[in-house]
Design goal:
Blueprint (H helix, E strand, L loop, with lengths): L1 H11 L9 E2 L6 E2 L3 E8 L7 E6 L2 E9 L2 E10 L5 E8 L2 E9 L5 E10 L2 E11 L5 E10 L2 E11 L5 E7 L5 E10 L2 E9 L6 E10 L11 H6 L3 H8 L14 E9 L1 E11 L5 E8 L7 E7 L1
Antiparallel strand pairs: 1-2, 3-4, 3-20, 4-5, 5-6, 6-7, 7-8, 8-9, 9-10, 10-11, 11-12, 12-13, 13-14, 14-15, 15-16, 16-17, 17-18, 18-19, 19-20
């Protein structure tokens, strides 16, 4: 189950791509469809495990279910420029509210997370973002919980295209511990490393991605992460904080075709897609090779 969940997590992120318009066969006009909902089902089950809702192709609500009952909610709001400014995540009596501040260029410069239990705040995280060193984004996070204060620092390293390709934590002696690293080929992450062994300096986990380079994908299914933060590639990762893939993009252009994961043992998986008559994706299914039931299935609806 541990491996199945890890495999599923790799496909939980919905990559970003530039899409072509489909065309109405009757009058030749482009067909425009906005995302309405994306429902996720796990392990071939009929009951929904996650539901995402959208307005103007931006995710506004997200719910996670257990046996048909929603036990986790995630609500998002945006400013006039369409940038994500707040997130409220709730599970039972616990709530975490994230507020995001941008500069005039649309870059994240601060994030504040207030965690509460039964309406009473018990933890506050304040993160400041420093862009002064070229090619490196430095984040300082101050956590206050009661009388205890903890300071954590992270470096996000950028490539020439402004994408984060490596993240490291920084200790009090300014020593680096690399958390993850992405290798790009064009706009695609083709290899992703994580969990470095501090003694050997080698990553313990890796994922290798291949892509369907031929299929044209209409609509915004592959642009969900960008739609929350505009075209700033680093904002996705700063919001996620300690990972590059996930809510951040894996590919800007193409669908994931399959993945090989090395974590304790190696296994591979395949992803398949179904499209409507206009070329908009309506289902994404991920399988572990050799197994009949899918690890996850996303059903996409439009309005």
């Amino acid at each position: 189950m541990k491996l199945r969940l890890l495999f599923f997590a790799a496909f939980l992120s919905l990559a970003s791509c530039s899409s072509d318009d489909s065309t109405d066969p009757v009058n030749g006009n482009p067909v425009d469809k906005n995302l309405k909902e994306i429902a996720r089902y796990n392990d071939g089950e009929d009951q929904i495990s996650e539901l995402r809702k959208f307005t103007d192709n931006k995710m506004t609500e997200r719910y996670i279910y257990n046996e048909g009952e929603a036990y986790f909610s995630d609500l998002y709001t945006y400013n006039e420029q369409g940038l994500l400014i707040s997130r409220t995540a709730s599970i039972e009596d616990q709530t975490a509210v994230t507020e995001i501040t941008y500069d005039e260029l649309g870059k994240i410069i601060a994030m504040d997370v207030t965690s509460s239990f039964s309406g009473n705040p018990y933890s506050v995280d304040h993160s400041t973002v420093d862009y002064t060193e070229e090619g490196v984004i430095k984040v300082t996070m101050i956590n206050v919980q009661g009388s205890d204060t903890t300071v954590s620092k992270y470096n996000y390293y950028l490539d020439a295209q402004g994408r984060v390709y490596k993240i490291a934590s920084v200790n009090s002696n300014e020593e680096l511990n690399y958390l993850c690293e992405a290798v790009y080929n064009g706009n695609n992450v083709v290899t992703y490393y994580s969990n470095m062994d501090s003694e050997t300096g080698t990553y313990l986990n890796s994922s290798i991605y291949t892509y369907d380079n031929e299929t044209v994908v209409k609509g915004d299914f592959l642009k969900i992460a960008y739609n929350q933060f505009g075209d700033n590639k680093a904002n996705h990762v700063l919001f996620k904080q300690t990972g590059i893939v996930g809510i951040a993009v894996i590919s800007e252009n193409y669908l994931i075709a399959n993945e090989t994961v090395s974590f304790d043992q190696e296994y591979s998986g395949t992803v398949t897609y179904e499209f409507d008559n206009d070329g908009f994706p309506v289902k994404q299914t991920a399988f572990v090779d050799g197994e009949v039931d899918p690890v996850s299935e996303f059903v996409i609806t439009y309005e």
